[in-house]
Write a sequence for this structure.
């Protein structure tokens, strides 16, 4: 629980940095969090096919809240990417995590539904 609170604080800090036009700092925080907490690099997230990514995520047996935070950090990472293909690859993983949360963890969120709709339009 304390870990999730810490991740929540880091995510809030990242969003604040983005609003303050400190994208470099935000990107560094996101990369550090993904690497140290989730053991996932930007390259891994950008290049790994979704089916392999989901298989590995399931094998790690994350709690639902950890998956929700993972999706949020990947979403922030995508928003900080300049390369459109890399951004889309990351967004596909965010959508896949939302689907996993709903289908296997039975976690439903109106925020996820809304964000999924926006991402799906962007991915068309």
């Amino acid at each position: 629980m304390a870990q999730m609170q810490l991740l929540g604080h880091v995510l809030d800090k990242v969003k604040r940095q983005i609003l303050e036009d400190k994208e470099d700092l935000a990107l560094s925080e996101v990369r550090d969090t993904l690497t140290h907490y989730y053991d996932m690099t930007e390259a891994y997230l950008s290049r790994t096919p979704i089916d392999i990514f989901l298989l590995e995520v399931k094998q790690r047996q994350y709690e639902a809240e950890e998956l929700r935070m993972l999706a949020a950090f990947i979403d922030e990472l995508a928003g900080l990417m300049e390369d459109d293909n890399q951004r889309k690859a990351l967004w596909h993983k965010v959508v896949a995590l939302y689907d996993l949360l709903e289908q296997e963890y039975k976690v439903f969120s109106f925020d996820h539904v809304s964000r999924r709709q926006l991402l799906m339009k962007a991915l068309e």
Q: What stands out?
A: The mean pLDDT is 96. The two ends are 37 Å apart (CA to CA).
